[in-house]
Amino acid sequence: MAEIAQCLECGNVRPVFNPCPHCGSADFPMLSSDTIEINLKHGQPLVEEALENLTEHLRRSIELGIKAIVLIHGYGSGGEGGQIKRAVHQALEGNRFSDRVDEYYYGEQVPAGSPAYQALIKRRPGLKAHLQQFKIGNPGITILLLGTYSRSA
């Protein structure tokens, strides 16, 4: 799912984390939602690169006022979970991102329609568009609920 961000400089649609391709502005864009999707598998990074990307995306997300992230890390082709997934879960369980992430849910814990899903959607309605497609849960994603940090002016 593509996030919609509008450049405050030129008014065009632009990427959330990268400079505007139309005018080059690196200023924060205006978002249409407080929920975004981040694909850690994009570009097939090594595990450490994926974790570094996650750290940077979390920092920028806090600055943008994002409240929830659907993190795509994949499940791995071997059927037992991929290396990026394992590294992300270990980092979360080891509190590596505890200064930014208040809560996290593994995709398989929140299948559409379940009580856990309903409770999560009630708290963060923006997640519904991202999660309703996963009828049996999705072991290739993790949902991150970010802290309530204020965006500096």
Walk me through what this model shows.
By secondary structure, this protein is α+β, with helices and mostly antiparallel strands. Helices cover 27% and strands 18% of the residues. It is built from four helices and seven strands, in the order ββββαβαβααβ. The chain has helices spanning 47-64, 83-93, 115-123, 128-131; strands at 5-6, 13-14, 30-31, 35-39, 68-72, 101-106, 141-146. The radius of gyration is 16 Å and the shape is globular.
Please provide a brief summary of the model.
With 153 residues, the chain is an alpha+beta fold. The protein has helices at residues 47-64, 83-93, 115-123, 128-131, and strands at residues 5-6, 13-14, 30-31, 35-39, 68-72, 101-106, 141-146.
Q: Give the CA-based shape.
A: globular
C-alpha termini separation: 29 Å
Strand fraction equals 15-25%
Q: Could you give the order of the helices and strands?
A: EEEEHEHEHHE
Number of helices: 4
> What is the percent of helical residues?
25-40%
Structural category is: alpha+beta
**Strand numbers in spatial order across the main sheet:** 4-5-7-6
Number of strands: 7
**pLDDT average, as an integer?**
86
Secondary structure blueprint with pairings:
Elements: E1 5-6, E2 13-14, E3 30-31, E4 35-39, H1 47-64, E5 68-72, H2 83-93, E6 101-106, H3 115-123, H4 128-131, E7 141-146
